[in-house]
C-alpha cells in the first residue's frame, strides 16, 4: 500500500503551522471563558462549603492537575503496553505529524544545549540565525513575520541586532525578487507560498538545507523519486468557452454523449468547468499514467495557472486526493515567469520534471522530460501559431496505450529502475546517485551511432555548438559533424532542400530529414523512421522546411518555424489555465 501524500513534507509543515495556531486559539478561548465565569460568579458562592480544616474548599478550577496527569500517564502507559503485546502499530493521521525545526540531530546533548539557551550559534549571523529573545534560537521558520520556534518578530530582531540582520533581510528580499538562485541561496529565506493562503511562511537557508537532507533520506528509504507535473498541454488542454467556435460545439456535444454512454464516471476526459467558463480535455492515458507511477514517484503539480484553476483540475485528476503531495500554482512560484524547484524544498538530484515548455525551467533543464504539446482545441493551436490542425478538427485523439503519456510512463519507470538498481557495479552508492545523470544516460541511447551533418539550420556566422538543434542531437546520443563527410555522415538534417549537402547525401544514399525528425525522436524516445520526415525540394516548400507531425503519433499541429525563447515563454504564460492563468504582457 502506497503511503498517503498526507505524510509528505509539505503536509508535515502545514500540520505544524496549523497545530501551532490552533493551540494558541484554543488557549485564548479557554482563558477568556474562565475569566467570564469568574466575573459572573457571585462573590459569596463558596462561603457555604467548608473543608475538613474549616477553610474554604477548592473550586472546580483548582483541582490538583498533578494527580490528573499521573492518572493519565498511567492509563496511557497501560494502553501502549497492550498495543505492543498485540503488535499494533499506529499510523499517523493525515496532517497531524509533529515537525521539529532547526534540529540537526535528536541527541539529548543537542536538545539540552538548545534548551539551555547558552547563547547564539557561531553561525547564526551568517545564516540568518541571529539570536533574539529566544536565546540560542536559529529562527528556522517564520510565520506572519514571527519566528515559529521562539516567537520573536523580524522587526524587533532587526532593531535589536542593528544593521547586520537588516541587511540580511534586505538581501533575501532582493534575491527573491530578482529570481537569482545563487543570490537566494546566499541570502537567507525561502518563502513557501503553497503552504499557507497568506503566503507568509518562510524557512531559513540553513533549515531549507536540513529539510532537503531529510527529504533525500526519506525518499531513498522508500525507493521513491520526485516527479513534478505541468498541467496545460502536458496532462490536458483547456480553452475558454467563448473560444469554441460553432463548428466545434457539435463535436464536443457528441464526445460528451459518447462518454456518458460509456459510463466512465470520474474517469471521463472531457469536462465543462462552468465556474471557470472553461472546456478542459484531459489527455488520453492520464489516469493510467498517474496510477502507474504513484508507487515509484512522489508527485507534485506545478502550473502557471492560478490556484483556483489548479485546485479544480486536481479534483478532476485525483478525485480521492491521494496522488499529489502538493499543488504549486503561479501564485506560489518564487518568480513570475519561470518555474523553480526551490519552492518545493526538493532534492534536485532526485527530481524529474514533465513539461511541454523547456524555456520555463531555465535552471533545471537537466531535470526535464519535454513532452509534445497536446493541442485538442483549434483555438489553442492558433495561440501557438503552429501549423496543422487540432485533434478536435481531425476528429481523432492520441492513443491511451501508445501516446505521449504512455511513452513517458515507460521512460520514467525505466529511469526509476535504473536509479535503484543494485546489480550494476558501475553505479555509485545509492546516496551519491543523481537521477539527472540516469535520465541523460537513457536519452543518449536513442540516436547512438548516428552521425549528423546540418544544412541551412542556422546562419553561417553562428557557433553551431550553441545551437539548440546541435545540442538536441548530442543529447540524443548522436555525433554532430561540422561538414559533410561521405565516409562518416549517416544523416543530413536540412531546413530546406536543394543544397549541395542534400544533393550529395542523396547521391550517396544517406538519410536526409527535416529538423522535426530530431524533435520527434526526442518526444517519442526512439529512433523514428526517416521516411516520415522527407525534405521537400525548393519548389515544394516555402523555405521553412517543416513537414511531419513532430511526435509521430500526433498531438495536433505540425512543426513549423520555431518561435524564439521569449515568444515561446509569452505564449506559455498566456495559455496557462486556458488562457486566463498567465501573466499579462
From TrEMBL:
The keyword Hydrolase applies. This is protein-serine/threonine phosphatase. Transmembrane segments: none annotated. Residues 20-71, 100-132, 531-585 are annotated as: Disordered. Residues 220-395 form the FCP1 homology domain. It comes from Chlamydomonas incerta. CDD domains: BRCT_CTDP1 (cd17729), HAD_FCP1-like (cd07521). Residues 20-29, 37-52 have a biased composition (Acidic residues). It is found in: Nucleus. Its EC number is 3.1.3.16. Residues 114-125 have a biased composition (Low complexity). InterPro entries: BRCT_dom, BRCT_dom_sf, Fcp1, FCP1_dom, HAD-like_sf, HAD_sf. The lineage of its organism: Eukaryota, Viridiplantae, Chlorophyta, core chlorophytes, Chlorophyceae.
